[in-house]
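Hey, I'm writing a tutorial for new members on how sequence and structure tokens pair up, and I'd like a real worked example in the thread rather than a made-up one. If someone can provide the structure for the chain below, I'll link this post from the tutorial.
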Amino acid sequence: MPTTRRSTAALALTAAAVSLLVTGCTSGSDGGSGDSAPPGISTQGTGKVTGTPDTVTVVLGVQTQGAEANVALAENAQRATDLIDTLKGKGVEAKDIQTSNLSVQPVFAPGGSAITGYEVTNQVTATVRDVSKAGGLIDAAAGASGDAIRVQQTSFSIADDSELRAQARADAVQQAKDQAGQIADAAGVRLGEVRSITEVPAGTPGPYPQAGTAFDRAPSTPVEPGSQELTVSVSVVYDIDD
């Protein structure tokens, strides 16, 4: 008799474990109703695809100094204007050129006791929709602004990733389906119809940044976009057929 009770208890625990694995947590309409969601199988899938960036965003800075703020600002304005005119001359549209930061800061003597001059920085962000032209554009910008030019950052992105995202989404759903089938087989049940599919929110894959410092002029500036990975995750709930 003790042996029979132990066997019955073990079977009950095993059944409870399978139930939790397959159905997950359930909740009733109130604490004592006993109502619960129908059994289901919940899985998650992630699809990853790789594409080649076709857009590069370049943050260019123009930095000047002068004994007086208005002198430094006037020189900076001229060099920044030359830079913007050069960008437009290289085919960058006005809508793709934006002043992203303008600052005027005092320059202090060693020890910080007295102001010896002023430093003006003007950052211009340019979106180049032909990656192959980015290197020549940076070279031209350096030629227009001289030693005042600073390449603050370059970043790559894909202008239209809708097809890549659709492929990643399909891969994610297929992965979730495969996992649900495996769980159903392991639990000895039949996989039913899809009850719900939810795309899991994720951060937008940002452009891939590459930090820059003061521009070191060279005969030609190579710019390689490399590749970019796009990820989509979904959560799928399946019914269990009787």
